Amino acid sequence: MQLSGKVALITGGASGIGRATALLLARAGAAVAIADLNAQAGESVATEITQSGGRAFLELADVTRAADCRRLVDRTIREFGRIDILFNNAGIIRRATILDLSEDDWDRVMAVNVKSIYLLSREVIPHMQRQSGGSIINTASGWGLAGGAKAAVYCASKGAVVLLTKAMAIDHGPQKIRVNCICPGDTDTGMLRVEAQQLGEANDRFLAEAAKRPLGRVGLPDEIAHAVLYLASDASSFVTGTALVVDGGSLAGSV
Ligand SMILES: NC(=O)c1ccc[n+]([C@@H]2O[C@H](COP(=O)([O-])OP(=O)(O)OC[C@H]3O[C@@H](n4cnc5c(N)ncnc54)[C@H](O)[C@@H]3O)[C@@H](O)[C@H]2O)c1
């Protein structure tokens, strides 16, 4: 699954799944444009890649803003000349029922998790069309395929990502642009701590509950990154419109 000569643009690349994927795709040979709001963490990922001989930069960008998405794509083309892989991964969570959720939180989650994919993809797809192909990978969630408690807007947003992925795959397949999404289960990133905090639960207890699945543990960011590498590479050349579940068996049923 080599990516030599390819260029990847990764949103939310400063931490968690995005960080692990930036490092893995760079190891596979891709030049990596990282977009995030977190300057310090994002710079450290870009530096780690460049110090190992790879090519990377951080662009501070809020992916809910059209102007930021345009600037990010313009810089990627200016510095790396093309975009072969777009990983729409930035995401946030609000653990609440609709009765406990503010309108601002509804709007923010839908903007970061869903609207950003529209804003960025519409900038990137014309470049992929000119290059005669590309691979877009969106981060959905197990909660894009099944519901969860106190996660109304998150489930709504990730369900939207799954069907947005399929609609994009249909529209852009003829231009050899493959569009897939990954559906991670609970993965050991800052997001799990945020969820525990939002629910008022102790971290240890929350993580122990999250580990209750056939493989008996939560996932590691690098394990999700390997699924992204597969979808980004030619190893998945006949795969489009799919929702790839990477969750230690959680959606297989109850344990
Ligand atoms: N961790 C899990 O258990 C899990 C499970 C399923 C799906 N996911 C999804 O994986 C993706 C990555 O999450 P993670 O777990 O790595 O969490 P994380 O919090 O470690 O990473 C999310 C990154 O997105 C960035 N970000 C947030 N809003 C942004 C914005 N408006 N513009 C640019 N960057 C922004 C954050 O700064 C952060 O670096 C998300 O889409 C999340 O919903 C995570």
Keywords:
single chain; 255 residues; alpha/beta; Rossmann fold; seven-stranded parallel sheet; globular; binds nicotinamide-adenine-dinucleotide
- Per CATH, the architecture is 3-Layer(aba) Sandwich
Question: What ligands does this structure carry?
Answer: nicotinamide-adenine-dinucleotide
Estimate nothing, just give the exact number of structural domains: 1
| Cα-to-Cα separation, first versus last residue | 34 Å
Provide the CATH superfamily: NAD(P)-binding Rossmann-like Domain
Number of discrete helical segments: 8
CATH class: Alpha Beta
Low-confidence stretches: none
Shape: globular
Helix percent reads: 40-55%
Q: Which structural class fits the helix and strand makeup?
A: alpha/beta
Using the CA coordinates, give the radius of gyration: 17 Å
* Strand percentage: 5-15%
Mean pLDDT: 97
**Count of individual beta strands:** 7
Strand order of the largest sheet: 3-2-1-4-5-6-7
| Named CATH topology | Rossmann fold
For the report, how would you describe the main beta sheet?
7 strands, parallel
Helix and strand run:
EHEHEHEHEHEHHHE
